[in-house]
Amino acid sequence: MDAPEVEEEEGRRWDPTTLTAVVVGAGPTGALAAHYLAMRGYKVEVYDKGARPSPGDAASVPLVLTSRGAIAFEELGLDGQRRVGPTATPLRGVWDMVGRRLRPLDSSSAFRRTFVTDRSGLAADVIRAAEQRYPNTVRFHFNTELTRAELKNRVAGARPSTSEPADAADVNASAEIDVPYDLLVGADGLESTVRRILKAKVKDFGVIRPVEETAGYRAVSRLPRPSREPLTGFYTHRPQEYVYDWSAPGKPSVRLYIDIDGSVGGLVSGLRRWDDAAAAAAELQAAYPDSFPEEWAAAVGQQVSSPALGEPRHAAILQCSQFYGPRTVLLGDAAHAVTGASGPMGLGQGPSAAVESVRTLALVLRGAQDDLDKVPEVYSNVRGDAVMAMQMLEFMELTRDSERARRLKFASWWFAWSAFVTQGFRWLAETVGGLLSAVMPKTFLSAPQVLARLEDRRIGYSEVIKMLQGYASPVVALLLGAIFVGLFMAFNRALA
Hints:
Blueprint: E1 20-24, H1 28-39, E2 43-47, E3 62-65, H2 67-75, E4 93-96, E5 101-104, E6 115-118, H3 119-133, E7 138-141, E8 144-150, E9 155-160, E10 177-180, E11 183-186, H4 193-201, E12 207-213, E13 217-223, E14 242-246, E15 253-258, E16 264-269, H5 277-287, H6 294-304, E17 316-320, E18 324-325, E19 328-330, H7 333-336, H8 350-367, H9 375-398, H10 402-405, E20 408-410, H11 413-439, H12 447-452, H13 461-495
Parallel strand pairs: 1-2, 1-11, 2-7, 4-14, 11-19
Antiparallel strand pairs: 3-6, 4-5, 8-9, 9-10, 12-17, 12-20, 13-16, 14-15, 15-16, 18-19
């Protein structure tokens, strides 16, 4: 990805060493943004309403990064951590624990490697690296939330977010402080405060969730060692080497992995009872009696039923009409959230897409020579096409399974109808692609082979969509042409 060209104007020259960026959100996306900004010379203030992240904490979820996201760790030289990048163990595949078979994943090329790790653990590593590299220019403020942003005056408001003491030097325990900025970066996730402010203050800024999964999910971590192996050879597997999947129609699903410290964690979704530990454990045992260890079922029940967790989370596709406002940009899930339907082995593209948005911002800053009056809009325009293609592929994968589609909540009848049209497009692409690849395998790829190319970071989402359209569009054109000719001939006969 090259830096986009931006028209230069005579006059003001922007010196990044005199500029301040306020980043909201200290997850992997916000922490990586702090690295890229500090590398250009910005003073960076990062605010997060939660506590400082640590491996396996309450805010953690499994995070899957393809090579699209992992490239950032190479660019920034973040090789002190062993979770993502050249020093980490790439994912080798997904074990179907019900059918006892491995779905392998290609990890032979650096352009195609995928990594699974703990979100909070990764964020902690990236934050620590930023504090060590840029002790005078990057500061993180935890338990501190953004309350407002005066877009015209470029002043944000921050205050303590919990009863826990915030950083004493930053926020008075009972008062809100003003935080001046030159660039405001929203990296605060699906329920973004920055996005909410833009929606309220920026004309024509639209936000919609076209589809949301009705099945909730929760993260689990540090499961106890079971009395028997859930899979032959399980105890010999290296951390981060495999994802273990328990799923079946009409049953709850569980996806676990071994984290870098040897602990087992993951996600549980689709339980009927989240508030009863015994009921949750019994449901898992009944769903997978031969493969899911009793010790894990009991531990999962205890963790997911904790009253402190609140309501289960729900994955959704989120779309914004633009990713910017005056001197403000949105990154990652704050701008374009997705579910976990697409990506390698259905493990999700969201985290990788979030890191791509950070890299896009960094490239736009370089191409625009830090002209912050131009950067936000240019960033949004550059990022828009890739996001549209990514979310189209996500929608196609999310609605292809009829069982899963019945558990989806659409924003309106339009999106429900769009799902039908999208599946028609997919069917055409798969049928035509399958026929062509069977006849000329060296010339054409089947639709699954085309989608598999997304694992390669050199292939863009837009390229994949265009390849699928190349299969389906001629058939649609011929069909419409035949309908037009038929109507024309019928009209002529009527006149005769």
